[in-house]
């Protein structure tokens, strides 16, 4: 129990129950406060949780489905506004065809290439995010947009550091991470 006004003002590490938290400022505050705990949970996932990768991925996916059904990405669009979106050659071809422009002009207008060859949209927020917060090229969006936040992708245990980095940025990842802590950690340690 907190015993000073300062303690009272801090977000508590304890159970946030099954409530979904969508507000990014609150998510940021909780995430920064819980960074030590999150590092411990990650170490637990990597080294001590006695569960196969497949079984863990299944639990992550099931938890994601429950959380995602309660989060409206079109009301958030935080990833579209702040991330530097990776695109590959297939994405570029598809998007250029959709916009009826040549590959060369698409590359010149929208793409920057890093030293290691990785291509990204050259501006952020994404140039295809509409004023209505919707993706203007949804059916042809890049593969990385389809896969984000990668919670349905196999290999959660190996990617847990990346997941931790996204806890603060994505309400879906944040809420899934909290539920996993409750489900896997607090009952197994
Ligand atoms: S994937 Fe995450 S960050 Fe992107 S719009 Fe949905 S909730 Fe927001
Ligand atoms: S292409 Fe669409 S889904 Fe991808 S970042 Fe841009 S607006 Fe978001």
Please outline what is shown here:
The protein is mainly α. The protein has 11 helices and 3 strands.
Describe the structure.
By secondary structure, the protein is mainly α. It folds into 2 domains: 23-74 and 150-185, no CATH class; 84-147, no CATH class. It is 53% helix and 4% strand. The chain has 11 helices and 3 strands, in the order H-H-H-H-H-H-E-H-H-E-E-H-H-H. Helix 7 (89-99) crosses helix 8 (103-110) and helix 10 packs across helix 11. The longest helix is centred in the first third of the chain and has 16 residues, at 53-68. The chain binds iron/sulfur cluster (2 copies). One iron/sulfur cluster is lined by residues 80, 85, 126, 128-129, 135, 137, 141-142, 145.
Low-pLDDT residue intervals, each spanning 5 or more residues: 1-16
Compute the CA-based radius of gyration: 19 Å
Q: What structural class do helix, strand and pairing data support?
A: mainly alpha
Total strand segments: 3
Strand proportion, as a percent range, falls in under 5%
Helical stretch count?
Answer: 11
What number of domains?
2
The arrangement of helices and strands along the chain is HHHHHHEHHEEHHH
Quaternary arrangement of the chains shown? single chain
Provide the list of bound ligands, each named once.
iron/sulfur cluster
**What number is the mean pLDDT?**
90
Coarse shape: elongated
Largest sheet: 3 strands, antiparallel
Task: Give the N-to-C terminal Cα separation.
Answer: 22 Å
In percent, how helical is the residue content? 40-55%
Widest sheet: strand ordering: 1-3-2
């Amino acid at each position: 129990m907190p015993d000073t006004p300062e303690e009272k003002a801090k977000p508590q590490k304890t159970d946030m129950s099954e409530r979904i938290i969508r507000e990014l400022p609150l998510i940021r505050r909780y995430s920064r406060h819980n960074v030590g705990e999150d590092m411990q949970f990650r170490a637990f996932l990597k080294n001590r949780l006695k569960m196969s990768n497949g079984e863990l991925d299944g639990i992550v996916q099931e938890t994601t489905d429950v959380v995602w059904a309660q989060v409206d990405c079109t009301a958030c669009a935080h990833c579209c506004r702040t991330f530097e979106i990776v695109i590959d050659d297939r994405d570029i071809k598809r998007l250029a065809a959709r916009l009826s422009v040549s590959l060369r002009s698409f590359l010149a207008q929208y793409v920057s290439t890093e030293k290691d060859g990785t291509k990204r949209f050259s501006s952020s927020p994404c140039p295809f995010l509409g004023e209505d917060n919707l993706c203007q090229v949804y059916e042809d969006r890049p593969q990385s947009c389809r896969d984000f936040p990668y919670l349905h992708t196999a290999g959660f245990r190996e990617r847990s550091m990346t997941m931790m980095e996204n806890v603060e940025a994505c309400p879906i990842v944040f809420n899934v991470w909290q539920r996993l802590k409750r489900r896997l950690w607090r009952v197994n340690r």
